[in-house]
Amino acid sequence: MSEERSLNFLEEIIEEDLKNGKYKSIVTRFPPEPNGYLHIGHASSICLNFGLTQKYPGYTNLRFDDTNPVTEETEYVESIKEDVKWLGFEWKHERFASDYFDTLYEYALKLIDKGLAYVDDSTAEEMAVMKGSPTEPGKDSIYRDRTIAENRDLFVRMKNGEYPDGSRTLRAKIDMAHINMLMRDPILYRIKHAHHHRTGDKWCIYPMYDFAHGQSDSIEEITHSICTLEFVPHRELYDWLIEKLEIYPSRQYEFARRNINYTVTSKRKLLQLVNENHVTGWDDPRMPTISGLRRRGYTPDSIREFCDRIGVAKRENMVDVGLLEFCVREHLNRIALRRMVVFDPLKVVITNYTGEEEILHSENNPEDEKGGTREIPFSAELYIEKEDFMENPPKKYFRLAPGQMVRLKSAYIIKCDEVIKDAAGTIAEVRCTYIPESKSGSDTSGINVKGTLHWVSVKHAINAEVRLYDRLFKVEDPTDEEGDFKEYLNPGSLEILSTAYAEPVLKNATLEERYQFIRKGYFVLDKESAPGKLVFNKTVGLKDAWAKEVKKS
Ligand code: ATP
Ligand code: MG
């Protein structure tokens, strides 16, 4: 789809590894924690991990990092699977870190037996004090020199549920003066009497992230374990554990987190928006979640294209949401069916149109030779957009005005003869005449007009609700502002037009089809539609209106 691009740093590493025979094929994984729905940042990681094994021999696993029993839910697991599939990727094995709890427990015992782990009775506060600082070494815990037998006994009893939450931990015995703070005897296991969504009440000790992630990688023989930059300092511990446990040598590589402006990409923050009803749910079309983007009308192709264009970087940066919109606009221009919908109707009566009605034809998509045509009924009473008529137009106004002519898209040229007002002086309808020889496709009128308007026939039009969306936040980076990020929500992010009129073929609109409402933008049917009640979401405008707004202000 996109132009040839040079190799990113991960592709360079992998090509080197394959060339020098280090690996015959590679294994990557996408490791979400099931504590929320996936967002556009995750899409980057998905496209990267799955993209590499599409390009090179090998496969990708989907692994749920479910080591933290309080936040994880089955609903999230299901949504994550749906989203990865929808993006167009297939995983080889579906795994859960909790599948490995028995193995991880054995690994912990192995470290104890090697004299490389100990049970510490210090409280969290005591440990924090003993940890030292980046400039000061930490202090050894008084429990650090327990015997192997004592550590084994205590750890087994921790597992058997003999101690309350927080009373003991299992720590690696590394070096309390290490310059990398994460290497100062990191906690491997903590006690948490909590129900787990998969293992139930079997466990009351749970491994810490650092003692589960790398080990899960090894168990699955992941060759290239790709994570985001905040894990750079963890790499040393990742390697230490693999070395001491003598397990498969997975390697960790880091790339920059991808964030886009005017939104937040953190599951925790998105959850707040959902819980506090700032949005209607995880799949609210304003949300940067995959499910929100899907409901908004984004296509998997456009999201993959976006991820490909932003590529992989080693430094964090904010990506302009305009690029995401550009990608979807480009794709929709190629695939969307053209339709006419009037948002704010003004009645036009064609006084010299004597026929009952007539069926006209219009292209479904001028970008697609095989797109075919659709039927559009034309009759003596039409709706056009209120904003397409002006009683006293300025110069160079090419839309409808008294005495002026316009073309109705795929139909005829009409001329405005008379404006009818009600008692209050508001325009009730405009009366026009049409030029019978000006029919689109067989126009012999010899008349040239500059404006072309969309329209619908009054008696054939169907009622529709149209939902227009704007940025969810008023500022580029709401988490970088003073106070709570939610203070920067854009109060005008949703506008509902409940009395739009759509051309009749839209009666059969489906959730899968994409539409361009001519002169209006790209739209998709919403799941809240019901027979007799069409609801459309605006995906994106035809042009980058936002950039222009910003320049103006
Ligand atoms: P969040 O802060 O939203 O919860 P997370 O990093 O905690 O994000 P995980 O479920 O742990 O979420 O992420 C799964 C994978 O997706 C990880 O490998 C993580 O590094 C990656 N990832 C998460 N957010 C981004 C992002 N904004 N850009 C790129 N990759 C990301
Ligand atoms: Mg996380």
Account of the 3D structure:
By secondary structure, the protein is of the alpha/beta class. It has 13 helices and 27 strands. It has three domains: 9-255, Rossmann fold, CATH 3.40.50; 267-337 and 464-552, Ribosomal Protein L25, Chain P (Beta Barrel), CATH 2.40.240; 344-454, Ribosomal Protein L25, Chain P (Beta Barrel). It has helices at residues 9-19, 40-55, 74-86, 101-113, 124-130, 148-159, 209-219, 235-245, 267-275, 290-296, 300-310, 321-335, 545-552; strands at residues 26-30, 58-64, 94-96, 117-120, 169-172, 187-191, 205-207, 224-228, 251-255, 258-260, 317-319, 337-339, 341-342, 345-350, 357-363, 373-379, 381-385, 405-408, 413-421, 427-435, 452-453, 456-457, 462-469, 494-502, 515-517, 521-525, 534-540. The mean pLDDT is 95. The structure holds adenosine-5'-triphosphate and magnesium ion. Adenosine-5'-triphosphate binds at residues 31-33, 41-42, 44-45, 227-228, 257-259, 265-267.
